[in-house]
Design brief:
Helices cover about 35% and strands about 25% of the residues. By secondary structure, the chain is α/β, with parallel strands linked by helices. The protein has a single domain, classed as Rossmann fold (3-Layer(aba) Sandwich), CATH 3.40.50.170. The strands form two sheets. A seven-stranded mixed beta sheet has the order 3-2-1-4-5-6-7, sandwiched between helices. A two-stranded antiparallel ribbon has the order 8-9. α4 (about 95-100) links the parallel β4 (about 85-90) and β5. The structure holds 5-O-phosphono-beta-D-ribofuranosylamine. 5-O-phosphono-beta-D-ribofuranosylamine binds near residues 16, 90, 111, 112 and 176.
Length: about 200
């Protein structure tokens, strides 16, 4: 099987990116590391990518007249790097149909709630404030909706009596760090088959 090239989009601290990149470097995920792109100059993820010896780019949306032009610049970099899979690891911008169409079923996102509940920003806080007894995280392919794409894996965690938003978020993050690399590994082994809304693990 040809090794796939995995690139990343991240806006922040980059803990999910770190976990996946480490597994690729250590050979637990048989893939090639591509590039990392951030929309935020201050993103810790950019620094970490440098430590891993990866090419990383700050592609500033402000330098482009619109969303699509910004994505065109990203797609050029991703394509030049031979990207097969994009991992959105805490990438906080809504993607347009342009990049989604160019990488149909090849962009994976991690969301910190059990979709279809609590899509959009602050999934952990939304669930905590709502008073659910179980929350968790979801890895899914990105489609044109907000957190609506076909679901690859989910993990549930309990909401405990004395939880705060922070303790719940930390419990969810531990599961994110488990199911995101696992989903990337399955993709890289050609074991994810998408049919409509369903993702079959083969
Ligand atoms: C995670 O909670 C993820 O679910 C959400 O953004 C956060 C990113 O965290 N999409 P990190 O940058 O991976 O540490």
């Amino acid at each position: 099987m040809n090794k796939k090239t995995v690139s990343f989009l991240a806006s922040g601290r980059g803990s999910n990116f770190t976990v996946v990149a480490k597994k690729i470097i250590e050979g637990d995920i048989k893939a090639r590391l591509g590039i990392l792109i951030s929309d935020k100059e201050s993103a810790k993820a950019l620094e970490i990518a440098g430590d891993f010896g990866m090419k990383s780019y700050h592609v500033n949306p402000r330098n482009y007249p619109g969303r699509q032009e910004h994505e065109e610049a990203m797609v050029r970099l991703l394509t030049d790097a031979g990207t097969d899979l994009i991992v959105a690891a805490g990438y906080m911008r809504i993607m347009t149909p342009y990049i989604i169409g160019r990488f149909r079923n090849r962009i994976i996102n991690i969301h910190p709630a059990l979709l279809p509940s609590f899509p959009g920003v602050h999934g952990q806080k939304q669930a905590f404030d709502y008073g659910v007894k179980v929350s968790g995280c979801t890895v899914h392919f990105i489609d044109e909706g907000t957190d609506t794409g076909p679901i690859i894996m989910q993990a549930a965690v309990p909401v405990l009596e004395d939880d705060t938003e922070d303790t719940l978020s930390a419990r969810i993050l531990r599961e994110e760090h488990r199911i995101l690399p696992e989903s990337v590994r399955l993709f890289c082994e050609d074991r994810l088959k998408v049919s409509g809304r369903k993702v079959k693990i083969i």
